[in-house]
Amino acid sequence: MAETRGGVVTAAGPDASGSNLLRDIEEARAFVAARAALRPDVGIVLGTGLGQFASAMRDPVSIPYAEIPHFPHPRVESHAGELILGTLGGRPTAVLSGRAHYYEGYSMKQVTFPVRVLRALGVDTLVVTNAAGGMNPLYEAGDITAVVDHINLMGDNPLIGPNEDSLGPRFPDMSETYDRELLRTAREVALAERIPLKEGVLVAVAGPNLETAAEYRFLRWAGADLVSMSLVPEAIVAAHAGMRLLAFAVVTDLCLPDALESVDVARILANAAKAEPVLTRLVTSVLTKLPARTRHA
Fold it and tell me: Nearest to residue 16, comparing CAs of 106, 143, 112?
């Protein structure tokens, strides 16, 4: 079901930060900018089993999360924990290879901190990927699905607390969280390149346990096609920051309550690996069709 399908927590959760958000963002931004000359306008977040995506980049510069001030460190297998800057589809791109998760003990602000840093580096278009459970009976394992909307059932929100007006408005609009123009471009690319592309609504839950059959029935009844433990916090922050967002979920296992099977980690990772080259081709082609950058001030 979730972003960690196939993942195993390998260390205890982190301590809470408690430091000033604007100062922390600037320290992280300055550190990254000093390590790489490239200034990205596209950011990509890679989910479970999708770490090889970054190998398609040209002239990459890799920075471990552990070296970047205030960056949360993923403690789940198949999340490399590296920021990679290079060129993809002719666009200067920053790739977050792996993410930290709320269930690891991080706060929502910590989970979404890397997206804040990408925005400070100049990223105005964000592509987010993850592994998800497919509740729509028309889905098959290995399907690539464009996320068209979401439901937040994580019980928390990265915007709770005092608002930093320089980062975004107190009450951000969510009527077009997933950019319609980018979705249209993704559909056109998929059609032209004969890439099967499903669409669906993703619901995010806190985890780390997978869902019961009754919970899958409820989530499906609520209008969700996919279920995950990630992506939605990043989507909320992207909307708050005024970023254009495109999101893809790879269906790594089927969550049909009347035919529910135990999770097989190896099969989940294999499904993600099968979809990864196709997803890389799809995203790279979409990037080549983006309009000229509009870097924020």
Answer: 106
Q: Is residue 9 part of a domain?
A: no
* Nearest alpha-carbon partner for 129 in 253, 281, 276: 276
The answer as to whether 217 is a domain residue is yes
91-97 and 58-64 beta bridge pairing: unpaired
Given its phi and psi angles, is residue 209 left (phi above 0), alpha (psi -120 to 50 degrees) or beta? beta
Q: What is the Cβ-side half-sphere exposure of residue 69, based on CA atoms within 13 angstroms?
A: 17
Q: What is the pLDDT of residues 6-48, one digit of tens each?
A: 333 333 344 444 459 999 999 999 999 999 999 999 999 998 7
Q: What CATH number has the domain bearing residue 167?
A: 3.40.50.1580
Residue 86 belongs to domain spanning: 21-288
9-18, 59-68, 139-148, 181-190: least confident range: 9-18
Contact 38, 58 (CB under 8 A): no
Query: For the segment 85-137, what is each residue's pLDDT rounded down to a tens digit?
Result: 999 999 999 999 999 999 999 999 999 999 999 999 999 999 999 999 999 99
CB atoms within 10 A of CB 279: 20
Token pair for 178: 């997933």
Structural domain total, the chain: 1
